[in-house]
Design goal:
mainly alpha, Glycosyltransferase, two-stranded antiparallel ribbon, 14 helices, about 55% helix, globular
Length: about 425
């Protein structure tokens, strides 16, 4: 089966009954009774928190945990989740433990490891990024594509996974100047160009559920990054065509139609994917129409966050209704989007919302616990919520680490500008 990014396999599995899946996960406790206590502890903790604290967990002012400490916890979780093969597990389940290595998330975690390694002078994180890159290169298919699903689940090509791994290859090339890595990255870009549909979408070979998805704007972002180093017009043109297709689905309400997860809610994670991909691709391709479309969507969610003190874990069309749990990964992604919009516009309202969101998320990081728990970002809050229930997920750690690294960089720049009484954005 062709897997889509970061859900239960770790994506939704349309043909698999929820009851059968739950039973299979519960059986993990029989094989690992040492996981019973951490499971009960987390369930009790979230139950108490949701009963006695404000349900929105809104952080108004005080910093409860320094971002530097939170970053060390997050990257520590990622490094602990790196398997012997060099890949990074998709998740740690409170029922079944670590999953197998997951190519997709390993790919886009590589830049995060390099960013933290450079900012904190942490050689172990850079070594982890290099090990992950070697493993990813071993998985590339003759077509240039990378496989769907967890490692060992099959060899079907995946458009989304190939795009997310491309982020890692582009960054690894910039760090090492390796001609071989650049050649492999270009081959991945050629595959993506070759399977793109006439309308600019990816809805055929390698697309999840065989459908086109607007959150594949993340693939366009990766291709735009690749085009900057290859100077291959085909890669840039492929990114442009998909961006044009996605923009046709951007509604005046801020809603981005066409996310198309059949049989599943439209989780904030995927909404944020679509927004982030449009924004970053628009910046790289110098497309003001894309930046404005992303800003419109991001502003709608910012106003909802400021007004209601939370974001829902899933939304229905036009953001009219939502599901009452938090998708922590989607929250972290929106922080990244707001911080980038602050960087390019200078509008302090984006910075203010992102700082509040980061404080909210840092409060939920477990400081203590076994490997797989300490420093982990749960799929949902409370932990039994609909998105990745009872799991700490690697992509949640990646996006929160990205948000905190962005926060650090922009605050340093902003504070320096304040001291010089100079304009704070370029």
């Amino acid at each position: 089966m062709i897997s889509s990014p970061t859900q239960t396999n770790p994506k939704p599995e349309p043909g698999r009954g929820k009851a059968a899946k739950a039973l299979a996960e519960m059986a993990g406790l029989l094989r690992g009774p040492h996981r019973v206590f951490p499971l009960l502890l987390k369930l009790t903790s979230d139950r108490i928190r949701t009963s006695f604290e404000p349900r929105h967990l809104y952080a108004y002012a005080s910093t409860t945990r320094p971002s530097e400490e939170a970053l060390r916890l997050l990257v520590g979780w990622i490094r602990a989740a790196q398997r012997r093969d060099g890949g990074i597990a998709a998740y740690y389940s409170l029922l079944t433990g670590y999953s197998e290595s997951y190519p997709e998330v390993t790919g886009y975690i590589v830049p995060t490891l390099y960013d933290f390694g450079r900012s904190a002078s942490d050689a172990a994180s850079i070594a982890a990024a290099e090990q992950a890159t070697r493993w990813l290169l071993s998985l590339q298919m003759p077509s240039g594509a990378f496989p769907a699903g967890l490692h060992g689940e099959g060899a079907q090509p995946s458009v989304f996974n190939t795009g997310q791994i491309l982020f890692g290859l582009v960054r690894a090339h910039s760090e090492t100047a390796s001609a071989d890595i650049l050649k492999r990255a270009a081959a991945a870009g050629d595959f993506l160009a070759g399977v793109q549909s006439e309308d600019g979408s990816w809805g055929g070979i390698g697309a999840y559920q065989g459908s086109a998805h607007t959150y594949y704007s993340m693939v366009s972002w990766a291709l735009a990054q690749l085009a900057e180093i290859t100077q291959d017009r085909r890669h840039a043109h492929t990114a442009e065509r998909n961006l044009d297709w996605v923009l046709k689905h951007c509604e005046p309400s801020g809603w981005i139609d066409g996310i198309n997860l059949r049989g599943h809610p439209t989780y904030l994670h995927f909404i944020a994917y679509a927004i982030q991909g449009v924004l970053e691709c628009g910046i790289l391709l110098r497309r003001n129409d894309a930046i404005e479309a992303a800003r419109n969507s991001a502003w709608v969610l910012l106003r909802k966050f400021e007004t209601h003190k939370h974001l829902y874990g899933a939304y229905q069309a036009d953001f009219k209704f939502g599901s009452h749990f938090a998708c922590l990964t989607g929250n972290a992604q929106m922080s990244c989007v707001w911080l980038r919009l602050f960087e390019i516009t200078g509008d302090l309202r984006y910075l203010n919302a992102a700082l509040k969101m980061n404080e909210l998320l840092k409060r939920l990081l477990p400081v203590r616990g076994r490997s797989g728990v300490a420093g982990g970002v749960a799929g949902s809050y409370p932990v039994w919520g609909a998105y990745q229930p009872l799991r700490y997920i690697s992509w949640g750690c990646k996006f929160l680490a990205d948000a905190l690294l962005l926060e650090q960089r922009l605050l340093q720049k902003y504070e320096a500008c304040e001291l010089e009484a100079a304009p704070c954005v370029s």
